[in-house]
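Appendix B. Chain record.
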Amino acid sequence: MGQGEVSARGSAMEGDCLSCMKYLMFIFNFFIFLGGSFLLGVGIWVLLDPMGFREIVAANPLLFTGVYVILAMGGMLFLLGFLGCCGAIRENKCLLLFFFMLILFIFLAELAAAILAFLFREHLTREYFSRELKRHYQGQNNTDVFTSTWNAIMTTFDCCGVSGPEDFEESLFRLLSPSKMVPEACCQRNSYLGAGSVEQCVSGSVAFRHNKGCYSAMVNYFETYIYTAGALAIVVLTIELFAMVFAMCLFRGIQ
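Structure tokens predicted for this chain:
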């Protein structure tokens, strides 16, 4: 077997590998493109106000913020999938390089977020949140982001304060509303309690308010999903690494 034949066979195998990698990358990015399109569609559908749905979302700050998070994620995935598909199928080195740089940026941002979360983990203690709640929570002021966020948390998780209703003692909320022991967000929302239940709740009646703290409620809630979230994070990081390797291999293989 001559050296030329061996070289030709090696070139053919290399070409087959690059072709396989190209189509795998196209299929992978096509699904990313579809996912981004779906998220963009959902976000735009909500913002276009179908059947008054926008008012429902706007009433809950967490949901309202979530819509824009969905739009941002959808736009990023849409762009990522588009660049990957076009770069792979057209064998465009410029698009592949841009795709690689975008993936690298996302990967480094996720890594930086994980490092910052580890470094500032002491700020996620019960005492820290209690101190901030006493200093900044105002009650029914929906123009204040801190206050509206806490109202949404207490309403969503059926809780009151960080450790409990006692967190509102000697707080800014009590200075602004001396006649109220707890804010309305702490009150139970069951219709059978009657119209006067909110007044009895804010005046200090234990029977008409939520008595568990939001810190414990949220920890218990997220503990259910912590392993799923961790596994998903590992899968996402692995996919990003493979995407970068595929993009760079395809970039170098294009003549």
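Further analysis of this model is presented in Appendix C.
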